[in-house]
């Protein structure tokens, strides 16, 4: 009897252990709960000057430190002297694994444009490129825009729009109907390092919008919805004069639009429109839409005729036009423009922005539930420019950002998302014309 009881207890213990291990290795991690790992590397990235100070067109350097060193203002980091150059003719499009131990990159333009590579992060300037590559240029061009989904480091999505032309470009005897390009949406397996699948199609607007010359110029900022069955992709809109064929620099903007496609098939593109925001929502070189704790997706606008807004897309994969969050109103400023932002959890986000009357960058703490925004108290400088900023790191309650004016030294700053407290961390040593563009 004792033997039978002992065997039963051992069985129950083993079953409980296996069940716990299974839960810890779930294939469906919660994308809105940032992992906490004190042992993770903190990688900073710096953009080299090309022709003009701050243009970032000279390539990208990376350097890694411990979390403890990142928090320490007595530590100095010089990415340009001690770091490693990642593959890219211009500014690289970098992403990191959730544990900070792997760096992902797709080279931007040049002979190796479109080449995906993966680096093991060993600390300091040691990044070992793994012997695995894949090139997506034949599908998404040598200048692809891509982001890593919040799905446990499984998938990257690259997007592109090419060959925008009028329907009657080859035969002017036909009546004009639209300008359209061919869109590509490509899924990249980050672990297997292979192209999982791709789709190409034209994405029409309404007939009336297209007759006026409106078209989707660029796609970017893909994000996976809570049900993990749809991708929401941001758009950058353009208007061409149908009579002259010339691109118009100033025009009456349509409501902000996103493209929704089925996932993982990438099929059935559908355009959704906001009546709250009137800007683009593709972002530039970083995530611009985030799945939040409440199950909704929040999205920032750029080039908005009424100043930047934070828009909400509900779990029916459509804009919630009852949600109105104007950053102009919240910050008491005019023509706010969001350069980069990051959802930190529990309805809190941090945004890098500019406003009317200045090219200087600022940082604000946003409360998406209360619809409030407060400028963060850090050392500001007229040469501070977040226009090319890529990486804001959230680890637990901490938010890490790199702040350096062009050509001047700066610091890593750490924000506590719960309290709003600000800590000045490691010094970032700069060089003329350069600036730091992210923490990963």
Architecture overview:
This is DUF4374 domain-containing protein. It comes from Persicitalea jodogahamensis. It is a single chain. This protein is mainly beta. The protein has helices spanning 2-24, 67-71, 79-82, 137-140, 207-211, 327-331; strands at residues 41-47, 60-66, 76-77, 84-85, 93-96, 102-106, 115-123, 126-135, 145-148, 155-166, 179-189, 194-201, 214-224, 230-239, 257-262, 270-273, 289-291, 297-300, 310-313, 337-345, 348-354, 362-367, 372-375, 393-395, 398-403, 410-416, 422-428, 435-439. A hairpin with a 5-residue loop joins strand 13 and strand 14. It is globular and about 70 Å long. The model is unreliable at 1-30 (pLDDT under 50).
Estimated structural class: mainly beta
Overall number of domains: 2
Rg value? 23 Å
Q: Count every beta strand, where a strand is a DSSP E run of 2 or more residues.
A: 28
Helix content: 10-25%
Distance from first to last alpha carbon: 57 Å
Low-confidence stretches: 1-30
What is the beta-strand fraction? 35-45%
List keywords for this structure.
5-stranded mixed sheet, mainly beta, 4-stranded antiparallel sheet, 2 domains, 440 residues, 10% helix, disordered N terminus
């Amino acid at each position: 009897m004792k033997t039978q009881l002992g065997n039963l207890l051992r069985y129950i213990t083993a079953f409980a252990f296996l069940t716990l291990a299974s839960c810890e290795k779930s294939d469906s991690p919660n994308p809105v709960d940032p992992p906490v790992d004190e042992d993770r590397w903190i990688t900073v990235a710096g953009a080299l000057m090309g022709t003009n100070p701050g243009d970032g067109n000279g390539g990208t350097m990376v350097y890694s430190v411990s979390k403890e060193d990142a928090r320490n203002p007595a530590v100095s980091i010089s990415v340009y002297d001690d770091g490693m150059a990642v593959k890219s003719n211009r500014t690289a499009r970098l992403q990191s694994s959730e544990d900070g131990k792997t760096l992902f990159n797709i080279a931007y333009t040049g002979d190796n444009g479109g080449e995906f590579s993966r680096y093991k992060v060993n600390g300091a300037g040691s990044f070992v490129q793994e012997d695995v590559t894949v090139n997506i240029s034949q599908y998404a061009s040598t200048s692809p825009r891509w982001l890593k989904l919040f799905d446990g480091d499984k998938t990257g999505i690259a997007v592109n729009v090419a060959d925008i032309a009028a329907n009657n470009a080859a035969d002017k005897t036909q009546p004009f109907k639209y300008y359209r390009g061919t869109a590509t949406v490509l899924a990249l397996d980050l672990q297997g390092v292979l192209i999982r699948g791709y789709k190409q199609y034209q994405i029409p607007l309404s007939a009336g919008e297209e007759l006026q010359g409106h078209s989707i110029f660029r796609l970017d900022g893909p994000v996976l919805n809570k049900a993990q069955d749809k991708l929401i992709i941001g758009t950058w809109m353009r208007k061409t004069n149908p009579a002259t064929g010339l691109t118009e620099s100033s025009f009456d903007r349509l409501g902000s639009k996103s493209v929704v496609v089925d996932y993982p098939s990438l099929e059935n593109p559908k355009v959704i429109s906001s009546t709250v925001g009137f800007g683009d929502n593709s972002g530039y070189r970083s995530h611009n839409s985030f799945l939040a704790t409440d199950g909704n997706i929040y999205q920032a606008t750029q080039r908005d005729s009424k100043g930047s807004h934070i828009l909400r897309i509900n779990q029916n994969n459509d804009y919630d036009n009852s949600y109105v969050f104007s950053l102009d109103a919240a910050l008491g400023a005019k023509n706010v423009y969001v350069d980069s932002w990051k959802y930190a959890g529990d309805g809190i986000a941090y945004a890098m922005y500019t406003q009317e009357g200045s090219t200087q960058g600022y940082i604000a703490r946003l409360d998406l539930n209360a619809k409030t925004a407060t400028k963060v108290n850090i050392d500001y400088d007229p040469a501070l420019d977040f226009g090319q900023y890529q990486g804001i790191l959230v680890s637990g309650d901490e938010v890490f950002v790199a702040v350096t004016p062009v050509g001047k030294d700066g610091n890593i700053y750490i924000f506590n998302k719960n309290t709003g407290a600000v800590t000045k961390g490691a010094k970032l040593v700069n060089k003329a014309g350069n600036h730091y563009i992210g923490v990963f």
